[in-house]
Specification:
8 strands; 3-stranded mixed sheet; Sufe protein. Chain: A; GMP Synthetase, Chain A, domain 3; about 280 residues; about 20% strand; Arc Repressor Mutant, subunit A
């Protein structure tokens, strides 16, 4: 059974902005009932071209409902350029996190938002666009590649969690592995694009929340991100890690190494000074 945050439960049990806007400026539809998840997002702009109202209809699980509800709240008051910057990780963070197996619900929300904005801007989609990799869920190669790049995915299971590809008959799992291998090769060849400061900060935060903290919590430990100064990542140890004699080794050989792999080889992890002054 999956563990949901209180915020996920709240947006599932008390979803905001359910329905459809009459004469909307933007309309985005993703998924299908046949595949198990479907979402329709509509929005209306005000006289200043900011999103005045947003509503959704969805067919799916608790995470799908919560993600769509959260998204409608997140985009109110934003310009379309601001809304374009929202990622699936932003939706998950707004909800206090989602189970790994349900991250595809946040991806579906981001896709619906993009299509709704494209609708307003006059862009047209056709069903034929993209090379289908997963026949069971209609997931394209382009969608898989984007999920891998944006969320730093490294296994077929992670791709399934974020896109549902490979979660049906399983015949496409070999093709997914081929895509992963090709993208790994591009990164090794130095094709990974340089991150902006904002992108680097977001990637550090996401890696700590999605990979590092869950691993430490399994052994009763935890860390808190305190600050990011250039390539210095300052953290505070928590739980069992705070009293463990090997905490320094954990920070260097696990936390720092993983951030170097995911973000930048220049990353240095340091433990915060004046720990007693840091709120718990």
């Amino acid at each position: 059974m999956w563990e949901y945050t209180d915020k996920v439960k709240d947006h599932f049990l008390n979803p905001r902005n359910v329905g459809e806007i009459e004469n909307p400026d933007g309309v985005g539809e993703v998924g299908s009932i046949a595949c198990g998840d479907a979402l329709r997002l509509t929005f209306k702009l005000d006289e200043n071209k900011r999103i005045k109202e947003a509503k959704f209809k969805t067919f799916g699980c608790a995470s799908a409902i919560a993600s769509a509800s959260a998204l409608t709240e997140m985009i109110k008051g934003l310009t379309l350029e601001e809304a374009k910057k929202i990622t699936n990780q932003d939706i998950a963070r707004y909800l206090g996190g989602l189970p790994d197996e349900k991250m595809h619900c946040s991806v579906m929300g981001r896709q619906a938002l993009e299509k709704a904005i494209d609708y307003y801007e006059g862009k047209v989609y056709t069903q034929e666009e993209g090379t289908i990799v997963c026949e069971c869920f209609g997931v394209t190669e382009e969608e898989i590649e984007r999920a891998i790049k944006e969320n730093n995915l490294s296994t077929v299971e992670e791709v399934t969690n974020y896109t549902k590809a490979g979660g049906g008959c399983g015949n496409c799992r070999g093709r997914i592995e081929e895509i992963l291998e090709r993208l790994r090769g591009q990164v090794k060849a130095g094709d990974k694009k340089k991150l902006s400061n904002l992108q680097k900060i977001r990637l550090i935060e996401e890696t700590i929340e999605r990979e590092i903290r869950p691993s430490l919590k399994k052994d009763g430990g935890d860390i808190e991100l305190v600050d990011i100064v250039g390539n210095r990542v300052i953290v505070a140890t928590r739980g069992a890690c705070a009293t463990c004699n090997a905490a320094g080794i954990t920070l260097k050989h696990f936390v720092e190494r993983r951030l170097k792999e995911v973000v930048s080889s220049d990353i240095v992890v340091e433990e915060a000074e004046n720990e007693n002054n840091i709120s718990r």
